[in-house]
Design goal:
Elements lengths: L3 H10 L8 E6 L20 E7 L2 E6 L3 E6 L4 E6 L8 E7 L4 E6 L5 E6 L23 H8 L6 H5 L10 H11 L12 H20 L39 E6 L2 E6 L5
Antiparallel strand pairs: 1-6, 2-3, 3-4, 4-8, 5-7, 6-7, 9-10
The protein binds a DNA duplex through helix 4.
Length: about 270
DNA sequence: ACGTGTACCTGCACGC
DNA sequence: TGCGTGCAGGTACACG
């Protein structure tokens, strides 16, 4: 489900959980992406000190030197609720001292959660090899130019590699390439300096706009209060195969690249 | 090291 | 109605 804007929207929505103390935890017996042996009892009686995000991972820090890493996979949802009904795909939930709940539901079970010592967060298997955040200073022209220069792979798939830059998934790379007027078919190393500069700017702009609109809701994404995002109304190419380009009126092309759908305008993007 | 394909899992929309 | 197929906001791994 979620790319960076959706996870960031959820993170912001969870602000009200900070300072709450956990008094009870629930976990399902279903296997998520990893078989986890974590001892959730360790966070009972702990208080949430802050909730951050790294790439598409939510990180809930507690006042007892532990951190819960949560990834939403394709279909994960995190909600804050007054009660816990234990729905079919609820895999984790905790009750706070004010009688409210935080619930993690994931239909397809591509997500996961794990509990680690906060000081070991950076060493976690899933976090240790991540590239820069797209909004950080480290994601700049010099960096990207150097990285792309050796890559023969198409620019679209390349930009979705979390070791290059994190958080950019299938929706936002399609939209960013359209805004940059760069064809997804281009080899990564073929981009000019000017194009790289443009691409960095549009990636940041596209992600920021999506965050401002609360993310994109296609089928099941929602914020922690159950509300949908609005960026899906702004899609220029994603999901618009065989519809006409909003700029030149020619048909938007749909094709597969490395197993994922790509959408682009042959006329506007080259 | 790279590129490609596949696996993980459920549910929905589609065509017959 | 039902059944088969393909598709979906992600990521890791196993090959060549």
């Amino acid at each position: 489900m979620p790319e960076l804007p959706e996870v960031e929207t959820i993170r912001r929505g969870l602000a009200s959980a900070v300072d709450k103390k956990i008094i009870r935890v629930f976990r399902s017996d279903k296997k998520l992406r990893f078989d986890s042996t974590l001892d959730l009892e360790k966070i009972v009686n702990a208080k949430i000190t802050d909730i951050s995000r790294r790439a598409r991972y939510l990180i809930i820090n507690f006042n007892n030197q532990t951190s819960l890493i949560l990834h939403l996979g394709m279909s994960g949802q995190v909600t804050l609720a007054q009660s816990f009904k234990k729905l079919k795909h609820d895999h984790f939930a905790c009750l706070f001292d004010d009688e409210t709940w935080l619930i993690f539901n994931d239909t397809r079970r591509f997500g996961f959660f794990d509990l680690v010592l906060t000081k070991n967060l950076g060493k976690h298997k899933m976090l240790s090899k991540l590239g820069p955040e797209p909004f950080s200073e480290d994601f700049n022209e010099k960096y990207l130019q150097e990285k792309l220069s050796t890559k023969k792979m198409n620019i679209k798939t390349t930009m979705m590699d979390n070791e290059l830059v994190v958080g950019i998934g299938n929706i936002y790379i399609n939209e960013s390439l359209f805004e940059s007027k760069i064809s997804p078919l281009r080899s990564a190393s073929s981009l000019s300096k000017t194009e790289i500069k443009k691409l960095i700017a549009t990636v940041k702009k596209t992600l920021q706009k999506a965050i401002d609109l609360g993310g994109s809701t296609i089928s099941d994404y929602m914020a922690v209060n159950g509300e949908s995002g609005y960026f899906q109304n702004d899609f220029k190419v994603y999901g618009r195969g065989r519809e006409s380009c909003l700029i030149c009126k020619n048909l938007i092309q749909k094709m597969k690249q490395n197993g994922r759908s790509s959408f682009y305008c042959q006329t506007c993007q080259s």
